[in-house]
Each structure stands twice: as C-alpha cells, then as structure tokens.
Design brief:
Layout lengths: L3 H17 L10 E3 L5 E3 L1 H9 L3 H10 L7 E7 L3 E6 L1 H13 L12 E5 L11 H19 L3 E5 L8 H12 L4 H8 L1 H14 L1 H15 L3 H25 L18 H10 L3 E4 L2 E10 L5 E7 L7 H14 L5 E7 L3 H14 L7 E7 L2 E2 L16 H19 L5 H21 L7 E2 L2 H4 L7 H18 L15 H10 L2 H11 L3 H20 L8 H25 L8
Parallel strand pairs: 5-6, 5-10, 10-11, 12-13
Antiparallel strand pairs: 1-2, 2-4, 3-4, 7-8, 8-9
Helix pairs in contact: 1-3, 2-3, 4-18, 4-21, 6-8, 6-9, 6-10, 7-8, 7-10, 8-9, 12-13, 14-15, 17-20, 17-21, 18-20, 18-21, 19-20, 20-21
C-alpha cells in the first residue's frame, strides 16, 4: 500500500517539472493534511517569489499538469495559491485493503544501519529512581521501533560499575559477608546497602583507609578485589532485571556495557589526545579546550580527560566508548538516551572524538535529551523528605491503583485475570504517560490522569483495543478472518480508513526523528477515529453482509494497528478490560 502523502508529493514533483522545466522536477513540495481537503500543497507559494509570478498563476500551471485522476476525486486552488487535493474513496479503500493483508501494516523496512542505543544506565549498588524511568522507557520504545524498521540495534546499558565508591562497597561486603542477609539487600534494596557502606566510610577512619586501598587494588587489577567487585555487580543485576521485567523492557544481562568495559583503554585515549595536541595540561589536569565552549564569564570550558590526581573522568570513558562503538560495533548512527543537562558534555565529547579521528563524519551521533519528571507541585518528583522516589515503589503503586480500578469496573472476572489486567494497565499507564510527551520536555507525574480511561492515556488505548476484541467475540469471528472487501460509503468509514494509512509514515517518522510521542499522538487519533466510526456505523448489525464484512475488516485493521503501535511503545494491550 502507498503513503498518500508520498504519492501526492511524487505527482506534484512531476507536475512541477512539466510546468516549470526540468530544474524544478526535484523540488520537494510541502504536502500536508488540510482542514479543507485531505491534503494541501503549497509548492506554488514557495516558488512564486523565485519565479517572479503570482502564486495562483503558478498553482494553475501545476494543476494543469497534475496527473492524479486515479488517486484524487477533486483538485482545486484555494486562497493565495494552495493546491487542495481530495482523495478518491475507492483509492483509499484499495490501500486499506492492501494494508489489511500486509503483516507489516504498511511500515516499510529501511536500509539497515548498525545503531548502538545507550539507555537506562543505572548504578551498581544503587536503587533505580524515577529519574531512570524516562531514559529506560524512551530508550526501549526507540529500540523496538528501530528494529521494526529493519535496523540492527545494539542495546548498550552503560551502567555505573567503576570508580571510587567501589572501595567502600567492597569493604562493606567483606565485613557483612558475601552470603549474608545484608549482602542480599543488593537484590532488593540497594540503597540500604550503599548507605550502610557510606556511613562506615564517613564515621570510621580505619574503614575509610581500607576502602581507599581497595580502590587502588581494584584499579590495579587485584584478582581477589575483582572477584568481590564482580559479586557486587552480579547481585545488582538481580535487582536490575527485576525492574526491567516489571517495566516490560527488552534489556538483558547481555546488553550490559558499563564503565568498566572501557577501563583498559583510558590511558591510551589520554596519550593519543596529548600526542595529537588536542589535549593539554592545565593546572595539573589534562584538558581539551574547544572553540565556542565558554562559561558565564566568557572563560573557556575544559573537557577534563585526566584529573590532577591521575584519575579519569566520564569524558575519558565516553571517548573510549564512542571509539569502541565506531571501530568495533561498526556504528552508522549512535543514539544516547540521556538527561538533557548532559547536552554540552556530549557536544564537547563528540567534537573531541571527531578531532581525534575516532568519530568520522559519516557516523551520526544523536543525544535524545530527556526532561525531568515533576510532581503535581511543579517541582522535580521526590519523596516528602526530599529524596528521589524509588522506581520500584512507583511501579508497585501504579499496579495497586490499577488493581482497585479493575476490581471496581470488572467484578465479573476472576482474581487472577484481574491481576494480570491490572499489571498491564498500571505499567502501561506509567510508560505511556512518559512517552506521550516530547522526550526533551518536563511532564507532571499524576496517577489519576495516567490511569484515566479517557483522553490521551495508555488505558484509553488499551480499552479501545479490548473493546474491539469484544466486538469480534460477540460476532463469533476471529479478527484475522475479517478480510473484507473494504468499501467506503459513510464519511466515518472514510476517515477511519484514511487514518489507518498513516501508520507506516508515522512509524518511519519516529525512526527518523527519535520522537515516540508522535506515535502516541497517532494512536490516540486513530482510536478517536474508530470511536466516531463505531458510533455512526453499525458493525455487527450492519444492513447487509457486504457492508458488515467491510466494516469488520476496518475494525480488524484498527485492532492490529493499535496493538502493533502499542507494542512498539512497549505497552501491552490486554484481551479484556
């Protein structure tokens, strides 16, 4: 099936070449949906000034040579020179019929790229908090979408598993015992383990001295220290996987690529930068100074790659990381799903890597900037004591609230079924609320709004899919058996079919722009189009079998599109609600 917007773009381009000469055949006309027709082209307005002609005259020349009779039932010039195009009902119906038979629902596969995606990135021996929610959820939606588009996606969970704190953590582990109940806290309450170690470090000089020695041993590759360090990671992985399983994200242990992965490369990174004259000594530290990066008073901002005490920084690790992803993973595009405050850091790191020759211009790097999660008071979401909210506590509360809603709405279902639905609805509500707003903006975390069955929410879309499934159950028909043929007689049928044709283009757009909220907006509009269709066009009680078959086919296509779209977002659509 064809993307209407792309079909019309190609036809208008051809008309431009025929009307204005070969030089204009490659012009990219802006084709957009219109309230006056299905689509509107403003190529005439864009070209009129360049040609020294009136826009309506240019539009007339385009329309006179526009060959769209097989696609459009009406083409007219409006306003100062817009070309309005209304699609033929039979053309829309044919495309919707093709979509129904397409296992990919009109989503074309793109030329395959190797795309490492860096997301989630929790710290070992620390509990994930609400700040990790967005990087994890947005990153997972992007990797699902990019894989569906045909790319080779390499998940990179850049966990914090190296550095000074591990000295105190290892010493604390030795004191409590590797197989003690205190050690098991790393699986269930990592913060409690970390805080106990930190308190010892702050209050016991003897412990602090041993912890500092342990850091030296760790960095020096001492076998016993590395064994204990690996034990900390293994215990933390149990916790990470519990969170990922609860969230329903696709990260596994195989995707871990923590800071420690690149430790052996850090000295070489610094040496090469210094040898190439890219890095220089400044107040005892090795720094890179890049043109255009200055502080508030106009002073140059350094990218520190080795501290004055000889220690390395995040910048050093990130430079080694980008080099590895280019040279070893053969990346064509590298995506970092990381908080917005890191924007300057990434810009400086990438420019340094390009200067060093580690990041060729052919490799695209993208920072998917993640905004803050706010409470209903408009401030960063925290507990009453001012601490970050634990992610698992947040997810547990979402499921608890959903459980109460499902129990109230569906007392007829057994407890096990209600529990499964509540998990899908609670977790789906949290994830969808995050994904439905632009990733670089802040949003207010509000359970009441998230769990609402109306508005642009996860439960609304889940309910829309469940309601469609109930139609087929009542009709005694499986959705896959509804094959049409599709014919469009009512305006609501036409609007729904046209909305269905938008799925492929919007998925492609998400892959290009890395903006999942665009898919959320599309799915919400589709669900609304289906609601309007269902209210105006009887399906099971249609006046004859042909109309009934067509409407069931449209209904089946809507169900498949909603379920597939939600799946790309990482949201499960339950059978019943």
């Amino acid at each position: 099936m064809a993307d209407p917007q792309e079909v019309l773009s190609q036809r208008v381009r051809s008309a431009l070449g025929a009307a204005l000469g070969a030089d204009y055949a490659g012009t990219d006309p802006v084709i957009r949906p219109s309230q006056f027709a299905d689509y509107q082209a403003n190529a005439a307005l864009a070209l009129a000034k360049k040609l020294g002609r009136k826009p309506r005259d240019v539009a007339s020349d385009i329309v006179a040579r526009l060959e769209v009779d097989d696609v459009c039932r009406e083409v007219e010039i409006s306003g100062p020179g817009f070309v309005n195009m209304t699609l033929r009902d039979d053309w829309i119906a044919g495309q919707a019929q093709d979509l129904l038979a397409d296992p990919r629902l009109g989503v074309p596969e793109q030329p395959k790229q190797n795309i490492p995606v860096d997301y989630s990135a929790p710290n070992v021996a620390k509990e994930m908090h609400v700040g990790h929610l967005r990087t994890t959820v947005v990153g997972d939606a992007l990797v699902r979408t990019l894989e569906f588009l045909g790319h080779n996606v390499i998940r990179q969970n850049h966990i914090g598993d190296w550095g000074t704190p591990f000295g105190m953590l290892i010493e604390h582990l030795l004191e409590v015992g590797e197989h003690s109940a205190d050690a098991d806290l790393l699986k269930t309450d990592p913060n409690a383990f970390y805080q106990a170690a930190k308190e010892k470090f702050d209050t016991s000089e003897d412990f602090a001295v041993r912890a500092r020695r342990r850091v030296v041993a760790l960095q020096g590759g001492d076998a016993e220290t590395l064994r204990l360090w690996q034990g900390l990671i293994d215990l933390s992985k149990v916790y990470f996987n519990k969170v990922y399983t609860t969230l329903g994200v696709t990260l596994t242990d195989a995707d871990l690529a923590g800071e420690s992965t690149y430790n052996d490369a850090l000295a070489g990174v610094c040496a090469e930068l210094e040898r190439a004259g890219i890095a220089e000594q400044s107040e005892g530290a090795l720094c890179v100074f890049l043109e255009g990066f200055t502080g508030r008073e106009g002073n140059p901002v350094p990218l520190i790659v080795r501290k004055s005490d000889g220690g390395y920084t995040y910048a050093t690790t990130d430079l080694a990381t980008v080099r590895y992803r280019v040279e070893e993973l053969k990346a064509d595009r590298i995506v970092y799903v990381v908080g917005a405050p890191q924007a300057m850091h990434f810009q400086m790191m990438w420019e340094t890597a390009r200067k060093a020759g580690w990041l060729p211009e052919s490799v695209e790097t993208v920072h998917v900037q993640i905004g803050n999660v706010l409470g209903t008071d408009g401030k960063i979401l925290r507990t009453r004591s001012g601490k970050p909210i634990r992610l698992m506590a947040l997810l547990d509360e979402a499921v608890e609230r959903a459980t109460r809603v499902v129990a109230e709405n569906r007392p007829d279902l057994d407890e096990q079924t209600r529990a499964a639905i509540a998990r899908d609805v609670g977790i789906g509500a949290v994830k969808y609320a995050d994904l439905s707003v632009s990733h670089d903006t802040e949003y207010v975390f509000d359970f009441d709004r998230m769990l609402a069955l109306n508005g642009n929410t996860g439960p609304y879309l889940q309910y829309a899919a469940a309601r469609i499934r109930s139609i087929f159950r009542k009709g005694g028909l499986a959705p896959e058996d509804a094959v049409g043929p599709i014919a469009l007689a009512e305006p609501a049928e036409r609007e729904l079919a046209l909305a269905l044709l938008g799925f492929g283009p919007v998925v492609r757009l998400v892959g290009d722009t890395l903006e999942p909220h665009r898919l959320c907006g599309y799915l919400f509009d589709l669900a609304q189009a289906f609601t309007s269709f269902y209210e105006r066009c009887p399906v099971l009680k249609a006046e004859d079998s042909t109309v009934r078959g067509s409407r069931l086919a449209l209904t089946a296509a809507t169900l498949r599109t909603l379920v597939q779209g939600l799946a790309l977002l990482g949201v499960h659509a339950p059978e019943r609600m």
